[in-house]
Specification:
alpha/beta, binds NADP nicotinamide-adenine-dinucleotide phosphate
């Protein structure tokens, strides 16, 4: 069986295909024939930037997100059966509760990932694929989907009638937009691209603001909310957008700091902090319990994740290069087999 491997900072060309003997599951492990994986910004951080906040082992099997079918089970396995369609939680040891050192081992980081024909996984990290989703769709869920779900539901919890601000039309933002609409919330979506406006509106955004032509977007967000600001910000921009996100948030609102897509000063005016009167949460994807809750909501809503393009297993380099070019509008998926 074959797997794509990567080293920290190896660059996109450093992705290498290796051949291995077929692995066997231990007593509490499951052998999964991986059918699809999806790429996330973390793949670029590991391969291109050479920096990742969590440990990355040498020559790791790349990619955190994947879905497939169970083809062998260990003698003590009780959570899944042969033939089940499953998706893996990227922190296999994080079942529920708070994130911490004990639960930080990650697929495609300190543990081998999913860009492989066969993956041996602990039974604890597997969840059933929502019945209406394909393997390609299910493979989009573990990182971007669970992160958006945690951002909106893991703190105070989004309520119907509240307003959410999403920043850029990347994968986390698209999931957040769709989950917010499923919950009866209003969404104000930022994007740099007027061509994306139609799709963002069709997914349920009430207002779309171009952050390039409107760099003072907090003023526009305030105008759109009668001066009040939004109840939730899914902050994926980081240093380059943080202060403006503070200025967009209502008193008593909540900001989920998810990512650092946008360069900016690593400082913030303390007056902005002091007067914001909001709660800020740092997000590290989410637990299996959160993944499970998200899957229930997805199944009830009949939600379909947005996929931009599907590549074959042999085209892993092309898939990484396409994702790295930053043109995708939806998830980039690699289909296996
Ligand atoms: N903490 C966690 O657990 C966690 C989990 C997942 C992701 N993340 C982080 O969250 C961030 C987003 O991840 P993703 O998967 O959504 O990435 P992505 O799909 O690659 O996001 C790309 C989008 O970001 C938007 N963007 C780029 N520059 C921007 C700017 N100056 N201002 C506003 N938006 C801008 C663009 O939207 P437009 O084309 O519409 O302008 C672009 O399409 C990354 O930093 C990632 O590392 C963190």
């Amino acid at each position: 069986m074959k797997s794509w491997h990567i080293n920290l900072g190896a660059g996109l060309a450093g992705l290498t295909l290796e051949e291995h003997p077929e692995p066997q599951p231990g007593p509490h492990e499951v052998l999964v024939r991986v059918r699809a994986v999806s790429l996330n910004y973390r793949e670029l951080m590991i391969a291109v930037q050479g920096w990742y906040p969590l440990p990355v082992k040498p020559d790791v099997v790349a990619v955190s997100d994947g879905a497939g079918e169970v083809v062998a089970i260990g003698a003590e396995v009780t959570r899944v059966r042969m033939g089940d369609r499953v998706v893996a939680s990227i922190f296999p040891r994080w079942i529920d509760g708070a994130f911490g050192f004990e639960t930080a081992a990650q697929l495609g980081g300190s543990l081998d990932g999913m860009l492989t024909e066969l993956a041996v996984l602990p039974e604890e990290c597997l969840l059933a694929v929502p019945p209406h989703l394909s393997f390609e769709e299910a493979a989009t869920l573990p990182c971007a989907g669970v992160t958006a779900w945690n951002a909106l539901t893991g703190g105070c919890g989004l309520r119907a009638g509240e307003t959410v601000l999403t920043i850029g039309a990347g994968s986390v933002s698209l999931f957040a937009l769709q989950f917010a609409r499923m919950s009866g919330a209003r969404v104000i979506a930022l994007t740099s691209s007027d061509e994306k406006t139609g799709v963002l509106r069709s997914l349920g955004a009430s207002d779309v603001v171009n952050y390039r032509t409107n760099p003072d977007w907090p003023a526009e967000v305030r105008r759109l909310t009668d001066g009040i600001g939004v109840d939730h910000v899914v902050e994926v921009g980081g240093y380059g957008t943080l202060e403006r996100s503070f200025r967009s948030t209502a008193l008593g609102g909540e900001m989920a700091w998810v990512g650092n897509l946008v360069d900016g000063p690593a400082t913030i005016d303390a007056t902005v902090l002091r007067t914001a009167l909001l709660t800020m949460r740092m997000i590290a994807v989410g637990s299996r319990a959160q993944f499970s809750a998200m899957n229930r909501a997805i199944a009830v809503a009949g939600h379909h994740p947005r996929i931009d393009r599907v590549f074959s297993f042999a085209e892993a380099h092309e898939a990484f290069a396409y994702y790295a070019a930053g043109k995708a509008f939806g998830k980039v998926v690699i289909k296996i087999g």
